[in-house]
Every structure is written in C-alpha cells, then in structure tokens.
Amino acid sequence: MKINKINIKIFLIVAFLYVFTGKSKAQLDPLYTQYMFNTLAVNPAYAGSHKFLSLNYINRRRWVGFDGAPKTNTINGHALVNKKMGVGGNLFLHKQGPVEQFSVSGCYAYQLKLNEKNILSLGLQGGFDKYLFNMADLSYITSIDEAYNNVPEDETLFNFGFGVYIFAKNYYFGVSIPRIIENEYKTNDVVNSEKKQVRHYYIMYGRLFKIDTNFALKPSTFVRITRAHRPVLDLNLAAIIHKRFSIGFLYRTNSTLGGILQYQINNKIKVAYSYDMSLKELRKYNDGAHEILLSYDFNFQKKKIFNPRFF
C-alpha cells in the first residue's frame, strides 16, 4: 500500500537523521534480545566462563518489512586458556539504511576464585568501529537537505572497555562498559562535538531454580543505561525442560514484548530463536524483530561435558 511505503520512508529518514546528525548527539549500540546467550558482546569479563572453546553466531533483523531496516550479524568466541585466564573476540556487522558499521574487539579476562562455588572475573577489551555512510543508497524525494552534508563518508574509531562478571553454576551477575571513550565524528576533517559514540553501562543478572530433575526456571534481567536515552530494562523468564528445551518470555520497558525458544541438540550444539515486537504505533508498519542464534562448544580435551550450560 502507498501509505505504508510513505510512512516507511519517513520513519527511516527520521531515524537516520536522529542517529547521525546533530539532533541526536549520540550513536546507540544495538540491543539484543538473547543477551543471556550473547554476553561476550557486552561484557569482556565473560571470556573464559566456560571450560572449553565456545563459538556463537547471532543474526538479528529489526523492523522486518521496512526497506533498509537494521540488520545485525555477530560472531564471537571465547575460551579458558588456563585455570585463571580467558580470551575471546567479537566480530560485528550492522547495516541500517545507508549506514554500515563493522566492529572488531579482543577480550581478556582474569578469574579469581572467591570460594568453592563462586568465581569473580575481571575483563578488558579493545578494538575499533568502522562506519561507512553510503549516501548514494538514499532516494531523495526533494532537494538534498543540509543535514546530509554533515555526514562523513567513513570513520574509524578506536575504543576500549572493561567488565566485571561473578558467576557460579546457578547464577551470574555482571557490570560492564564496553566502550569508555566517547569518540567524536569528524566532518571534512573537523571534529564535530555534537556527534559522538555514547558510553553505555550494562547490568545483568540471572539465576537458575531447579524445580525437579526435569524442570527448571531461569529468570534474568538486563539493564542498559546511557545519557542519550532513558534506561531500558529487560525482564525475562524461561522454563527449561529436560535440560534440552526452553521457552521464555520477555518484556522490555520501551514497550516491547517477546518470546525465546531454545533447543540443546546435544552437549555441544545449541540453537535459539527469538521474536519481539513493539506495542507502540510502529508495530502497524513492520513485522517485529527476529533473532537467530547458533552456538557450538569445542571440547579439545575430550572430557565429557556432563550438563548443557545455562548461562
């Protein structure tokens, strides 16, 4: 329908200008629904929390049905290299309209055993974000606005961050700042202080409650805090059946509802799918957000993995 296409174009243009012109003053990080399975993307202290090499692939598509809607692909992995140190890395590709972001980061974590059950992990990460602004991808309805002239063609920004992660077999708690430096973008080699990467603060918590041998409940929460936007809180509750299948429900305080399905094929392979949708007016013009996760755990030491991991 024409009215839908018009609304879509208007929404994408407004979103683009909001994020990448002086009216926004900040670049927000993508928000994942399956944060509990993709923790390394937001907290470097998570590296080495498993006793084996763990690899994840995450594909997220938001505002399905929009031309130029956000698409995010993430690959990350981490491993415990000895009893105290963990290493890992993230590859990230995000495209939204004419804007592409490619990010690479390496993670290092040092673990301290608090007691027989609890481990404290301190993590650092460093890397870069490369932004490409393909203005030729836009279809102009009217003459070019001056706002587009203030967008650089490409930009590479270096950054570093840190995190804290406390975990045991039945719970986890983490605090992190993945990017500490609020880099400013340049326009024609001139720094524009109104356009910058904004610092994000993340807080996460989850716990496993075993009801019986074949059933467990796993509530979790995830908080994103940034001065560019009001805090966003995720509340999630998952039911785990026979340690293989789980179904979960999500509520996000920006008026979003979602669901998560996960299946542990065996002790090494896990697949998951999530869907979330806005409860606001925007839901009339798109089909929500879809997120797919594939995880594989390598066991090079040939030791038996007794139970699938829950965090």
Secondary structural class = mainly beta
Compute the number of helices: 2
Low-confidence stretches: 1-25
Numbering strands along the chain, what is their spatial order in the largest sheet? 1-2-3-4-5-6-7-10-12-13-14-15-16-17
Overall CATH class: Mainly Beta
Describe the biggest sheet? 14 strands, antiparallel, barrel
Tally of distinct domains: 1
CATH superfamily: monomeric porin ompg
Q: What pattern of helices and strands is seen along the backbone? A: HEEEEEHEEEEEEEEEEEE
Annotation, overall tally of beta strands: 17
Proportion of residues in β-strands? over 45%
Task: Provide the gyration radius in Å.
Answer: 20 Å
Mean pLDDT: 83
CATH architecture: Beta Barrel
Net shape: globular
Q: Percent helix among the residues? A: under 10%
- Looking at the structure, the CATH topology is Porin
Span from first to last CA? 44 Å
How would you describe this protein?
- It contains 2 helices and 17 strands.
- The N and C termini lie far apart (44 Å).
- Residues 1-25 have low confidence and may be disordered.
- The protein has a single domain (2-298), classed as monomeric porin ompg (Porin, Beta Barrel).
- It has helices spanning 2-20, 146-149; strands spanning 53-61, 71-80, 85-96, 99-113, 119-133, 154-167, 171-177, 184-187, 190-196, 201-207, 209-212, 215-226, 229-241, 245-252, 256-264, 269-278, 289-298.
- The chain is globular and about 55 Å long.
- By secondary structure, it is mostly beta strands.
- The strands form 2 sheets. The chain has a 14-stranded antiparallel beta barrel with strand order 1-2-3-4-5-6-7-10-12-13-14-15-16-17. The protein has a two-stranded antiparallel ribbon with strand order 8-9.
- Strand 3 and strand 4 form a beta hairpin.
